Amino acid sequence: MTEKTFELVDRASDRKVTLPVRPGTIGPSVVDVAALNKDLGVFTYDPGFGVTASCESRITYIDGDAGVLLYRGYPVEQLAEKSSFMEVSYLLLHGSLPTRKQLEEFEGSIRHHTMINESLLRFFHGFHYDAHPMAMVSAVVASMSAFYHDTMDIYNPRQREIFAHRIIAKIPTIAAAAHKHALGQPYIYPRNDLDYCSNLLHMLYAVPCEPYHLDPVAAQALDLLFILHADHEQNASTSTVRLAGSTGANPYAAISAGVSALWGPAHGGANEAVLAMLEQIGTADHIPKFLAMAKDKSSHFRLMGFGHRVYKNFDPRAKIIREMCHKVLARLGRTDTPLFELALRLEEIALKDDYFVERKLYPNVDFYSGIIYSAIGIPRSMFTVMFAIARTVGWVAHWQEMIADPAMRIGRPRQLYTGPTRRDYVEIGKRTS
Ligand code: ACO
Predict the structure, then answer these.
(1) Distance from Cα 428 to the centre of ligand 1, integer Å
(2) What is the pLDDT of residues 139-184, one digit of tens each?
(3) Ligand 1 mean position to 258 CA, how many Å?
(4) How far apart are CA 256 and CA 250, in angstroms?
(5) DSSP 286
(6) Where are the beta strands (DSSP E) in 164-260?
(7) Which of 259, 346, 361, 384 to mutate to test the pocket of ligand 1 (most atoms within 8 A of CB)?
(8) What is the mean pLDDT of the chain?
(9) How much distance in Å is there from the Cα of 243 to the middle of ligand 1?
(10) Edge-to-edge strands of the sheet including 5-10?
(11) What residues does ligand 1 touch, defined as CB less than 6 Å away?
């Protein structure tokens, strides 16, 4: 079988280039455009990277048209039903499901790396009481590079593994400290006898003066949400981690860059924005007014939690979370759930509206997640932090994959320059305007 290639001809100079096509295991092949500049003197132009594969990866696969999401080949629906966040973390990092012994060792290592240096805890005192938790988490994660710099050789696989375990174990402790700082309550130390999500809930809600009773429903809900948020191939924050990491930067600093990129409302910040929007809409009779605003390009209002760069069908994660909302709210005994009812109605109306149908805009992972976070008592400003905790695993898996790849190069996009052509400096007294 002949290898597939594309031939591109510059008709003005009659020069041509043959571009090889590289197939993946599933999904679209890619055209290797490396020869374009050498042979034709041009770059590709793809603002927003809509059709650009920035790397080769074996971690996560998305078919946006079919609404399919696979972690290392396993459908996210199966993992959500049968697995745990710790097992999924192992899978993303190592490429295969762990044996019982491997899982115990991995979980044990994560449990024993949960404490953070006391000096890091003191950093929180420097933040104003109303600092956004994402700002605090990003800053404190970046500061970890000051604690683990001399011992962090990115080309040493064992040191990379220690980094992976440290950041996955410590980011819940940092997140909970950000929450406690906002409340003015004492920081709660991690408990190594608890599983990952129960420990996070304990650090978020316990106080030193009375016993804290863990709610297993809340811990299970969080574990499931974390599985669904764990990775999503080359999204904005993961690409940021890869780009920052490609310079050889300290990986804690690269993860901090990912936290910052995630914060934006077009990305992970949407979960916070969805709840604000639902509260703003208030009641179902206001939905048409807000839909009209979302369709009006001059309003700058978008239906938060709707639309996705890759999914042109239901985001499979949104379907699972919507189902989960029913179960979690029922198990928590919530009968009065106005925001969930409103979200369901909004989805129903939007999915019948021509504007959303034509543009294939469906609910994404963030549309329903805030409803569950709220139901288990997570404050709105912490929603994106919850996302960041789960996505840390994906960021680390991508960073590991990139650093271990012998073909790794610094990420360095090019541009179409449209500024002034060459001109000579004019003395200040001779400038006219
Ligand atoms: N509300 C109204 N219109 C929308 C929405 C929306 N939520 N999303 C997209 N559109 C429209 C655009 O205006 C555009 O219309 P046009 O063709 O008439 O110009 C069309 O749909 C295509 O949208 P783009 O902005 O080109 O799509 P893009 O892939 O660049 O953006 C994004 C994807 C950022 C997710 C967008 O859909 C959006 O802003 N959604 C709301 C924010 C959100 O929920 N973000 C979370 C995404 S999931 C995640 O990152 C975890």
Answers:
(1) 46
(2) 999 999 999 887 789 999 999 999 999 999 999 999 999 999 999 9
(3) 21
(4) 10
(5) G
(6) none
(7) 361
(8) 95
(9) 24
(10) 5-10, 15-22, 30-31
(11) 48, 235, 266-268, 270, 294, 302-309, 359, 361, 364-366
Rounded to the nearest angstrom, the distance between the alpha carbon of 290 and the centre of ligand 1 is 15
Q: Which amino acid, one-letter code, is at 196?
A: Y
Task: Kindly name the residue from 165, 229, 308, 398 that is annotated as catalytic.
Answer: 308
Query: What CA–CA distances, in Å, run from 193 to 107, 108, 198, 425?
Result: 11, 10, 10, 68
366 belongs to the catalytic site: yes
Q: What is the Rg, in whole angstroms, of the alpha carbon atoms belonging to the chain?
A: 24
- Kindly give the number of the ligand 1 atom that is closest to the alpha carbon of 307: 37
Taking the C-alpha atoms of residue 123 and residue 365, their distance in angstroms, rounded to an integer, is 32
Q: Kindly write down the DSSP assignment for every residue of 115-153, as one continuous string.
A: ---HHHHHHGGGS-TT--HHHHHHHHHHHHHHHSSTT--
Structure tokens at 77: 């629906």
Catalytic residue among 366, 398, 405, 424: 366
Among 51, 358, 364, which residue has the most ligand 1 atoms within 8 Å of its CB, making it the best to mutate? 364
Q: Whose Cα sits closest to atom 21 in ligand 1?
A: 359
Q: What are phi and psi of 231, to 5 degrees?
A: -155, 155
Distance, in Å, from the CA atom of 323 to the CA atom of 321, rounded to the nearest integer, reads 5
Confidence category of residue 335, pLDDT binned at 50, 70, 90: confident
pLDDT tens digit sequence for 30-69: 999 999 999 999 999 999 999 999 999 999 999 999 999 9
Tokens standing for 322?
A: 């919507």
Give pairs for 153-157: CB < 8 Å, separation 24+: 154/248, 154/251, 154/403, 155/403, 157/404
Residue nearest to atom 49 of ligand 1 (CA): 267
What is the distance of C-alpha 357 from the center of its chain? 26
Active site residue 132: no
**CA distances for 109 relative to 171, 199, 266, 406, angstroms:** 14, 14, 35, 28
* Nearest C-alpha neighbor of 398 from the set 59, 141, 90, 61: 59
Q: Ligand 1 mean position to 376 CA, how many Å?
A: 29
CA of 302, closest atom in ligand 1: 1
CA of 270 to the centre of ligand 1 (A): 11
Which residue is listed with tokens 């009006």?
296
Q: Rounded distance, CA 281 to CA 291, Å?
A: 10
Q: Which two tokens stand for residue 155?
A: 């080309």
